[in-house]
Amino acid sequence: MAFARAANYLTESDPDLKGISYRFALALLFILAVSLYAKFFGGGHISMTLVIAAGVGGYMAMGIGANDVANNVGPAVGSRALTLGGALLIAAIFEAAGAIIAGGNVVTTIRSGIIDPTLIPDTHTFVWLMLAALLAAAIWLNLATAIGAPVSTTHSIVGAVLGAGIAAGGFAIADWGVVGKIVLSWLVSPITGGLIAAFFLYLIKRLITYDSNMAQAAGRHVPVLIGLMAWAFTTFLLIKGVGRLVDISFGQALLYGLTLGVVIMILLKPVFRRRALYIESDKPAVNRLFNIPLVFAAALLCFAHGSNDVANAIGPLAAIVDVLGNEPDAIAGQTTIPLWVMMIGALGLSLGLALFGTRVIKTVGDEITDLDQMRAYCIAMAATITVIIASQLGLPISSTHTAVGAVFGVGFLREYLKVSYDRKIEKIKEHHAGEDQHLLDGFLARFEAASVREKGAILREIKRKQKQDESVALIRKKERKSLRKVYRQELVKRSLVLRIISAWVITVPASALMAAIIYFVIRGMLLP
Question: Mind giving me the DSSP string for 352-412?
């Protein structure tokens, strides 16, 4: 637990100058250590270019840890299922484990086929291109993290490779079909994640929180929800993590996940039925039932993230190592990743999250909208299911956009339901206008305690009576709009939504422009 205590110290919300200096000193020490290791133990042809590239790779890995990993643990932290220190500890262990165990031995050096390597004139140009892309993507992630904007690290490195590639070989070098798919993913990722998260939240409300006996409803339905989570996460892990180690089809992963989910549901049914007899019939008590599943969800998301996105940090570095050391006269589309390069990615992810990840964690977990454990469950499920669907459709979606879109979906659904409920209350008050306040309060209390079906019957009866009596005033349209505006401002921060979306839109062009500029600077410095 020493790591968790240290992480809490390093990630206080308002650190003093000494704390900030301490973080930057540790980050610089890591970059220096990586560079020195490359110099003395990198193997193959050791050059200053390799030493610099290793340091930039470490910088990029920390940037991914500070920005991208937050999406996996942010909702669990925001819902109080995990403390910040506990989340950092889990993320550090499982990100590193995913990178080392299931990170894969081969990575595409030119990410997603974004450029054609055959149009790169020589190996020197290729090395400069990869180094420029790596540095530009790292700088962009650093800037986004500083303002608390969760952006896609995949889009950052793709944009950087695209920009440096165009600078090196012209516009013909780019695969614009891939670029088009990436642009499409800006829309598909957050919208799909938001819709799935909203669906699960509405399902939970109908099955559990709207029930007159919330505890008994939780005892019946929470095991099913956890079983669904086990199914989704097992399938996700088999496809995105274990699938790198063993050959497994999507159908097999789906079947294995379903089997485990059913087993877990059956085992948990009697446990939760007994617990329902002793817990309070309120939301805080029901929310606590989701704590342990959310801890497992955060750990599995971090493992899968480490196994997949470590390539964003070390792919260009692995390409540079391969060209400089093993095959100096060839530019390969794929390359074997040395263990020491993989370790840079694994350690950098963990250290970047511990030192600088708190800002984005707070954005995802606290600042967009208020989260509890049930809402965090919906976000985790949405992120997982969206990635599973997209992986089968071949869509290059962003896990960051998906997770943040799920947070948006939860917040906007809460807004809609709050406004809708308040309008119902206003209709009841208008219908009982002029009656004794004590009677009105009693009717409202009975309405609030009623089931969803009973509430619907009450409102239909009121509507029928209002149609019969035209003197009964309905709430005016202006009042409804004003009421919606109040709740929207309270439940979802519009300024933050606009800031995040703006960061998403400019990620590819910003990283591309920076990479092109850096490429020309490097080329100008190194050309004879």
Answer: HHHHHTHHHHHIIIIISS---HHHHHHHHHHHHHHHHHHHHHT----HHHHHHHHHHHHHH
Cα–Cα dist 103/367, whole Å: 32
CA dihedral 421, 427, 428, 432 (to 10 degrees): 160
- At residue 520, what is the residue type? F
pLDDT digits (tens, 9 = 90+) for 320-368: 777 776 554 455 555 566 778 888 888 888 888 888 888 888 888 888 8
Cα–Cα–Cα angle for 35, 39, 40, rounded to 5 degrees:
120
The reply to whether the predicted model has a pTM over 0.70 is: yes
Query: Which residue type sits at 219?
Result: G
336: helix, strand or coil: strand
Distances (CA, A) of 451 to 207, 209, 220, 456: 10, 10, 16, 9
Q: Please tell me the number of Cα atoms within 13 Å of 385 on its side-chain side.
A: 20
Q: Which neighbouring-strand residues pair with 108?
A: 334
18-39 in b/e form (b: 16+ CB < 10 A) is eeeeebeeebeebbeebbebbe
Contact between 58 and 30 under an 8 Å Cβ cutoff? The reply is yes
